[in-house]
Amino acid sequence: MYIKPDFLTKRILNPLLELGMKMGMSFRGSQILSVKGRKSGNVYTTPVNPLSFNGERYLVAPRGETGWVKNIRASGEGELRLGGKREQIRVVEISGDEKVPVLREYLKFWKSETSKFFGGVTDESPEDVLRATAPNHPMFRIVK
């Protein structure tokens, strides 16, 4: 599953968010993720909403199987940026029941920014509903 960004998001909102983050302004912890393309080798950037939960950090893909997901899955690494601060990261994809509490927390913290991508599933949804939607949203634990 992949929810393609609309024109407004792709051409106006995301570039504005990235510009703000390049200037060091974070929106509730959002950052720019840079990942090398798995085929082209080019570096691609996109705004992401990292989640800190139970002493770990995660990247969740609310839009599903995006380009950044495929690229970071292939390389296992990327870079998070905010202003002049750059952090090289390595990631491990998580799956199964491990995703459920992370998804619940993500939906709680990033509700206003991402709820439209979860088809009515919220942080208050029953565990079986979260378990059913979790496979549609790749998740990665940042391991440094």
In short:
This protein has 144 residues and is an alpha+beta fold.
Tell me the CATH superfamily.
Electron Transport, Fmn-binding Protein, Chain A
- Unreliable spans are none
Strand order of the largest sheet: 2-1-5-6-7-4-3
**Which CATH class?**
Mainly Beta
Helix content: 25-40%
Q: In terms of quaternary structure, what is this?
A: single chain
SS-based structural class?
alpha+beta
Count structural domains: 1
CATH architecture descriptor text: Roll
Number of DSSP helical runs: 5
Order of SSEs? HEEEEHEEHHHE
Largest sheet: 7 strands, antiparallel
How many β-strand stretches?
7
Given the C-alpha coordinates, what overall shape results? globular
Radius of gyration (CA) equals: 15 Å
CATH topology: Pnp Oxidase, Chain A
Strand content: 25-35%
Explain the overall architecture.
This protein has a single domain, classed as Electron Transport, Fmn-binding Protein, Chain A (Pnp Oxidase, Chain A). It is built from five helices and seven strands; from the N terminus they run H-E-E-E-E-H-E-E-H-H-H-E. The chain has helices spanning 7-22, 67-75, 99-109, 111-114, 127-133, and strands at 31-36, 43-48, 51-53, 56-60, 77-82, 85-94, 139-142. It has a seven-stranded antiparallel β-sheet with strand order 2-1-5-6-7-4-3. A hairpin with a 2-residue loop joins strand 3 and strand 4 (56-60).
